[in-house]
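Bug #77: duplicate submission created two jobs. Keeping one. Sequence:
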Amino acid sequence: MTNLRILQIAPEIAPGSGVGGVAHHLEEAFARAGVPTERFTLADARGAWLPEPGPGVRGRLVLLARVVWFSTVGTVLARRRIARARHGTDGRALVSVCHNDVVAGDVYVNHGILRVAMRARGGYAWRMARNPLHLFTAARDAARYRGRTHRVVVNLTSAERDALRATYPRLRVPAVVIGNGVDVARFAPPTSAERAAARAAAGVPDDAVHVVFVGHEFDRKGLDLVLDAAADLPDVHVSVVGGTPDMLADVRARVARLRTADRVHLAGRVPDPRPWLHAADALALPSAYEANALVVLEALACGVPVVATPVGYAPDVLEDGRTGWLVDRTVDGVRKGLAAVAALDDDARREASRAARATAERHDWDAVARRYLALAAELAEVRP
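Kept job's structure:
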């Protein structure tokens, strides 16, 4: 592996969840394997002047601008960067890995298929037509998958690979599966003192069943289902981690109608979800669509079982009834999952926590990075 260099392309590469977090964890794992890694981000695409997206119409316009800029200007500049970097003087072969937007790179990591996500949520034509970003992304990706810009597409699950081939039957390059990983040192089960402190900070009573929802797309990830299901389970408290002020205002109105405001805790956007996972009895994620939700593995690594719909990574890593519950995407389905969590006695909770942690340990980032490096070595041997 020491004859390789990796160039990762992503709008940002930083700790946290999402695409930027994946690239960050891979970068660290590549370094531990002795493989130098370079970056190409939105700043390298001369897009540092673009502000961070915020709430409302202005926020959506800013997001559109960032995606369009990185997809167009970023593509041109990334291709130049790759061409220059291929002629390095250290004797190492460069393999480029693109995570989002830019149409360049030997490897493209499919972090989600927009068209599949919109169909899963219903009202496909309306959702696409009303959002210029969706129309742009769909057109860009149709061009991406019809061409030979990339030499291989990495999918995060086998289901996502199948969905990619079904959505883009003219895909012209190989599609492989490499799942995401989890930092099992950073995400670990809390001590008794840490758990007690986390629950107190979250405002959750000692005897309550505490369910945590983590995500910024409340509709797609099924927050309303969780809130409606919990309304019928008086011992269940829900903490909502993520969302903009406007989104949280809508949640407050909903829980007021449900008369559960005393059992719903709104954390908003946080830099680190661990305190909430340390306080949790379960993670709830009844998504309509997921490519590979990192928070599922993060919860398991913290010893927290997961109530989820069978999408994305969930059916690959959850053992139904042992490390979590795979449920229908309905209020009744989610209610049954939350009720199963509430029904666990202390011994069953400890066993679920041990099993969840053991599952996560099989998916650490070093193991994932080794698979990427093996793929990169194959590509380096056969230059186009």
